[in-house]
Amino acid sequence: MNETIENGFRKEIDGVTNVYYEGYWIKCYKPPTDNLSAKKKLIQSLTRRLFNHMEHGINIPGRMLDQVRAVYEAENDPKKKRVKGAMLAGALFNRGADIFTHLVDLEASGVKILPQNDLMHTCGLCLREALEYGKLVKHRNGDEGIDELWGEPFKAFVMTVADFYESRYLKIALTMRNIDEVAAFMVEYIDNDPRFKGLDRFILNYAKMARRKCEILRTDDDILDVWSEFVVAGEEITNFIPDHELLTKDPLAHIVNIKFMLKAGVRLIAFITRARTPMPKSSENFYKEFNRNKELCV
Question: With 50 as the cut, is the pLDDT of residue 262 above it?
Answer without folding.
Answer: yes
